[in-house]
Amino acid sequence: MRLNCELNLSEEYLPKDYRRGFLSLIKAALQQGDRALFEKYYSKPLIKPFTFSIYFPGLVGQESDSFRVGSKVKLILSTPDPKLMTFFYNGLRTRDLYPYPLFENTLTLEKISVTFPPRIVESSAQFKTVSPMLINNKGRNDWYLLPGEEGFSEGLTHNVRELAKNFLGLETIEFTFDALHFREKKIFHYGQFMRGLHGYFRITAPVELLNLIRDIGIGNRRSQGFGMVDLA
Predict the structure, then answer these.
(1) Residue 161: what pLDDT?
(2) How does pLDDT run across 62-98, given as a tens digit for each residue?
(3) What are the residue ranges spanned by the domains of the chain?
(4) At what angle do helices 19-33 and 35-42 cross, to 10 degrees?
(5) Strand partners, 7
(6) CB-CB contact of 57 with 65 (8 Å)
């Protein structure tokens, strides 16, 4: 399921570390929707069943340490969990959440809707990134990798196995990843520069795992606005 929000900004500029501000909005919405569920996901480290992406239709470009993004924002949040989606939907529609403070800016909600992407029915699918994908190898939280680099395959496989184990109850999986076309995307997030990737890739895996990846994303920091994908 995809929650599609159209939001308005009071000013045209946001810092380059903008994703953490939208994560704050999402957390505030979940608190509004269901405080107990918020505590479940954020009182201790827990793999979360959602991802999101941010898109600025009027983006002009970077100016110093800020982006000139225009006055419109599209926030897309994805989860396979109907209960969680309901709480996000209700929380983001709460009137007293707005205007929501966002750095030196404020957000107001213009429109919100839910869509249901078609289910994947074959064991191989081609995806494209909607938000940058981050992959690190086990034990290296400060270094992110690209396809073809040492440790990328191991880090990606470990990440996907954790998703399959936590959300599908699968202890072992058959999984192959083929990078078709990609480019490096430099990101500044929580005061740290990271190397992400944008592009197209093909995954062969059990159908339920392909649908899970489409619904909650792939890679590290999914619930912080990374790794959202769509069918290509």
Answers:
(1) 95
(2) 888 899 999 999 999 999 999 999 999 999 999 999 9
(3) 2-115, 124-231
(4) 130
(5) 73, 109
(6) no
